[in-house]
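hey can u check if this looks right to u? its 186 residues, i copy pasted from the old doc so theres a chance i mangled smth
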Amino acid sequence: MMAGTRNTREGQVPKYFYATGGRGRETVIYAYTQEEWGLGGSLPSGGNYQARTFTGLAIVALIATVPAILAPPFILVSVYAIIISFPDLGEMGMGLIWFVVSIVCTALFSGGWLLSLHALRGELKARKRRKDRGLPKPRYGVTDDQARHWFEDHPGALDITRENFPFSTRLFPGESDYLPSHEKRA
């Protein structure tokens, strides 16, 4: 789950996700759309997604290619073993075990390989979108409250509305129970 991606009451994903980006010493918070997030950064809840790099995922996909290719033929081999061992129930049982193991391995290895390729394609698309907007890769995700505070201190980059910060715990102007003194407490 990405930073701030809890579903809203309407079941919709928020418009923006927030993270620090770049490698400089100054903390800058950027607003990313879901399409720009890609592999993303670490989550404010503590998940470390820095380990999910494009290079690391490409290596995993490359390593998973061999078992993903070799697992499906074992289904045919195990079916052949069951057919040729027909009168002997012990050998048929062993062929059946190989058949089940082949099905499970095919699902795991091929599924993992396809998911890796899907994630790699998604990151390449996200990189292109981030490059078009001049955004760095998200490094460390921040909460809506942290992002709202930063954007209030640096106005002009993003409108401070409930739509842009749906999980902010502070009230917005125009909401019931809002008082101007709320801005001073936060």
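Residues 1-9 have pLDDT under 50 and may be disordered.
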